[in-house]
Design a protein that fits this description.
The complex is a heterodimer of chains A (251) and B (360). In chain A, helix 3 packs across helix 6, helix 3 runs parallel beside helix 7 and helix 6 packs across helix 7. Chain A is built from 11 helices and 10 strands. The longest helix of chain A is centred in the middle third of the chain and has 20 residues. Chain A is globular. With 251 residues, chain A is α/β, with parallel strands linked by helices. Chain A has one domain: 3-Layer(aba) Sandwich (Rossmann fold). In chain A, the strands form 2 sheets. Chain A has a 6-stranded mixed beta sheet, sandwiched between helices. In chain A, strands 2-1-4-5 form a 4-stranded antiparallel beta sheet, with helices on one face. Chain B has a domain of 229 residues. Chain B is built from 15 helices and 2 strands. A two-stranded antiparallel sheet of chain B has the order 1-2. In chain B, a hairpin with a 2-residue loop joins strand 1 and strand 2. In chain B, helix 4 crosses helix 11, helix 5 packs antiparallel against helix 11 and helix 12 crosses helix 13. The relative contact order of chain B is 0.17. Classes of the chains: A alpha/beta (251), B mainly alpha (360). At the A-B interface, helix 2, helix 3, helix 4, helix 5 and helix 7 of A face helix 8, helix 9, helix 10 and helix 11 of B.
């Protein structure tokens, strides 16, 4: 198991956002997380990536407990993530965004960076080459000199994925990567993500695009009101009466 | 008729583009901080040669003295801009680190007769050491609260200096600090001090330039733009802020050491809140987020204050009005928007002429 969540509980001022959630993500698979708005999907992501602490329960990554660790340490262990509301750095160029993603990979102290010592230059050049490769992979290479703030919404979403990839994660948590994208854009994104998966990356994504989740995921979990409604292969979950009720009847 | 008009325009356009090219050599780049692949460029060499030649051409002692002060303020503003402009955090206690640097040099050189060259580096270290101690707890604060905490630190520093006469000389301060000397060369005239201060400033600009385009500088910008995004890629936000704070403080410490050995006096009144606010003003007025803006701001404000001092009672109101006007017309700072504004004015002038011609 690459990632396992055991009995997670999270309250917000008396509102129970997550109630004893347990599931696992296997290495090299794509797991989809679905559920109506307010079901607790993003909260779950925040807990896994360390933005917030769970009230009780354990989160393990590669058999090592990561519950309550600070965000940057969890990220360095190999958990990359993107955000539902874009957190791209608009004050930097596209390639610099990706280079910043490699922050913990590049290494180099304050003084050696300030004096621009030869090995720092060498590392920067190598990192630049790699950053351009990552941009190529996500189809942003033509924009590498642009400012992140000048990109379109869809491109910024891809840039966030590129930035997360630059930190060399083993699992990538994607919070609604296709939100706000047109249908062809979403399809293209799904193709790109599947290519990443072939390269050995584990994906865990929140998504509302039914078609996208059903087409990509090996396993789907459905949350509703903080409870895990169903879990399993997409075809089985799709026909689960509870899921149909949560998605269709109550809205 | 039409042909004639167009020909005339072509000539004039040539003139404009020539003027623009010249300006592009002199004025800071409008979006300098976005271009982090920069090396030492033509513009830098131009600045450097102006710096070298200016005091030789303009042999006015008062001017030299003013530029020494402006250089020291420039170092302060440069340090603060790494913290304020790049890492996006506010500090209203920067003068305290300036003071720590000054007193370190003053005490080491007068009491222990340590050569000023070593005292200079010790001042930088002392300031960064205190910045580390102070920054560790207070950098958890954000925005207004951080501003208040740093302001409080500045005031506490002043009180401690005033109330410990044994160490710092109390309200009177420390006198007769020896001039900076290195390998037998004593920096005793304003001209020599000018080269000393601006030499140090040039070195620090180079250091900051390297820093800003490295992983550390990118982390600063990332923290300023989105802390959530920064920590999601493994940047330790607290540590990055602390690093920016410590570097800014060490620059201030070095500036303080230079100030002490140039003025040969360290007095608590120098390091008050006024100076802290003045440094912030230099950074804002000069332009946040590039390295030359704050220095431009430092030169401008130092000269402005000096120029206004002859109007005595009227100097403060005039000063205020000028600042307000500048912030209205150059909201991004004189070092950042100047080129854009000047280009706009020139092209506006050109367009207006052209419009008049065509209407005839």
């Amino acid at each position: 198991m690459l990632l396992s969540v055991e009995g997670i509980v999270k309250h917000y001022d008396g509102v129970r956002a997550l109630n004893h959630i347990s599931f696992q993500v296997r290495k090299g698979t794509v797991k989809g997380l679905m559920g109506p708005n307010g079901a607790g999907k993003s909260t779950l992501f925040h807990l896994i990536s360390g933005v917030e602490r769970p009230d009780s329960g354990r989160i393990c990554f590669k058999e090592k407990e990561i519950t309550g660790l600070p965000t940057h340490e969890i990220s360095r262990l190999g958990v990359g993530r993107t955000f539902q509301t874009l957190q791209v750095w608009g004050n930097m160029t596209v390639v610099e965004n990706v280079l910043t993603g490699m922050h913990s990979v590049i290494r180099g102290g304050l003084l050696s960076c300030g004096l621009s010592l030869p090995w720092i230059k060498k590392r920067e050049e190598a990192a630049m080459k790699e950053a351009k490769d990552i941009l190529e992979l996500l189809g942003l290479f033509g924009r590498w000199k642009w400012f992140a703030s000048q990109l379109s919404y869809g491109e910024q979403r891809r840039l966030e994925i590129a930035r997360a990839l630059a930190a060399k994660p083993e699992i990538l948590l994607l919070d609604e990567p296709a939100a706000g994208l047109t249908y062809p854009e979403a399809k293209q994104l799904a193709d790109r993500l599947l290519r990443l998966r072939k390269a050995g990356l584990t994906l865990f994504l929140i998504e509302h695009h039914m078609g996208m989740v059903m087409g990509m995921a090996d396993e789907v979990a459905v949350l509703n009101n903080g409870e895990l409604l169903a879990e399993g292969p997409p075809d089985v979950v799709k026909n689960n009466p509870l899921v149909i009720e949560a998605y269709m009847v109550r809205r | 008729m039409v042909d004639q008009v167009q020909k005339e325009f072509r000539k004039r356009d040539l003139l404009y583009s020539g003027a623009l090219w010249l300006l592009s050599l002199i004025l800071p780049d409008p979006q300098l901080h976005y271009r982090r692949e920069y090396r030492i460029r033509k513009r830098d060499l131009f600045y450097l040669s102006v710096l070298l030649l200016l005091p030789l051409i303009w042999k006015d002692v008062h001017f030299h003295h003013l530029m020494v002060l402006a250089g020291i303020h420039g170092i302060l503003a440069l340090g603060l801009t790494l913290f304020l402009g790049y890492a996006g955090q506010i500090s209203l206690g920067h003068a305290a680190f300036f003071g720590i640097g000054s007193y370190t040099t003053a005490i080491l050189t007068t009491r222990y007769a340590i050569p000023s060259f070593f005292a200079f580096w010790a001042s930088g270290l002392a300031a960064s050491f205190f910045a580390y101690l102070i920054g560790k707890p207070i950098l958890k604060l954000k925005g207004y609260f951080l501003a208040l905490a740093t302001l409080g630190f500045g005031e506490i520093f002043l009180v401690m200096v005033r109330e410990s006469p044994g160490l710092t000389g109390g309200v009177i301060g420390i006198f007769n600090i020896p001039f900076f000397s290195l390998a037998g060369l004593v920096f005793d005239t304003y001209l020599k001090q000018y080269y000393l201060v601006w030499g140090v400033l040039s070195g620090l600009v180079l250091f900051s330039k390297n820093l800003v385009r490295s992983r550390i500088g990118r982390a600063f910008l990332a923290v300023a733009s989105s802390e959530d995004g920064a920590s999601a890629v493994g940047i330790d936000v607290g540590r990055v802020k602390l690093a920016a704070f410590v570097i800014g403080a060490s620059f201030a410490g070095l500036a303080g050491s230079l100030f002490a050995s140039v003025m040969s006096i360290a007095n608590p009144e120098t390091f008050s809140l006024n100076l802290s606010v003045l440094i912030v003003m230099m950074v804002i007025l000069g332009g946040m987020g590039n390295l030359y803006g704050p220095i431009a701001g430092a030169i401008f404000l130092t000269c402005l204050i000096d120029g206004l001092s002859r109007y005595q009672a009227y100097s403060l109101p005039i000063y205020g009005v000028i600042l307000i006007l500048l912030l209205i017309f150059f909201p991004d700072g004189i070092g950042t928007r100047l080129r854009v504004r000047v280009i706009y004015l020139i092209s506006y002038w050109g367009r207006k002429k052209r419009r008049e011609k065509v209407e005839i």
